[in-house]
Design goal:
The protein is mainly beta. It is built from one helix and eleven strands; from the N terminus they run H-E-E-E-E-E-E-E-E-E-E-E.
């Protein structure tokens, strides 16, 4: 039993390290107003294996305009960074919608690099102990035409779709967060990508506004 478990774990690590691309667990910040600043950082898991870390910083520039910066890294030399401005709208019931559009740069464990132009739509609920959201990211990925590119590096160009779900639980300022991300594409050979990833970490709200106070209802 121990040998089988060890073999399975070793295979997971090997497969995860060989993947050229996997969906990035970018935060679904759900910015709700000007001055909203969220920092999310955590461990990066690919197919259940902890391979590195990731962090997202999101900020509400005005009452409709936001910006987001994300980066990830892992132990086998893969790295990724993206920047995306966006628009958001919050409603009286604490529902928030966001739309980001940006550009990302990545490297794989074989020394190759790629670029990603993308847009992402987010929707969710904030202002409670348990916040939740859903994101849908679509983009066009393409590899740089570099000399001596390794045969296992990302090849060619194509479209991809990455849906994701998010949960955050905690108090007004600090919440434990988790995100699960999936990937659908016919542009990347199946042996060159992992179909899902996950992040588990902490989300910090540094908004300088006064924290929300619970509503008290008088039933007398």
């Amino acid at each position: 039993m121990k040998k089988a478990t060890y073999f399975f774990a070793t295979m997971l690590i090997f497969l995860s390290s060989c993947a050229v691309y996997y969906p990035q667990p970018v935060d679904i910040p759900l910015i709700s107003e000007k001055g909203d600043l969220r920092i999310d950082a955590g461990g990066l898991l690919v197919s259940g294996v902890l391979v590195g870390g990731n962090a997202t910083v999101s900020y509400g520039i005005t009452n409709v305009l936001a910006a987001q910066m994300y980066t990830s890294f892992d132990a086998v030399g893969r790295g990724y960074v993206q920047f995306a401005p966006g628009l958001f709208n919050s409603f009286e019931n604490d529902r928030v919608i966001e739309f980001y559009s940006g550009y990302g740069l990545g490297t794989d464990s074989w020394g190759g690099s790629y670029q990603l132009a993308f847009s992402q739509f987010n929707i969710g609920k904030v202002g409670t102990r348990l916040e939740h959201g859903f994101g849908l990211k679509g983009g066009y990925i393409f590899a740089q035409d570099e000399p001596y590119r390794h045969k296992n590096s990302l090849q060619g160009n194509g479209w991809l779709i990455e849906p994701s779900v998010m949960l955050r639980y905690g108090n007004e300022r600090v919440k434990f967060s988790t995100r699960i991300n999936f990937l659908w594409t016919e542009s990347i050979p199946r042996e060159n990508y992992m179909p899902f990833s996950m992040s588990v970490g902490v989300n910090i709200n540094l908004n300088t506004r006064t924290p929300r106070t619970p509503k008290i209802t008088d039933f007398d």
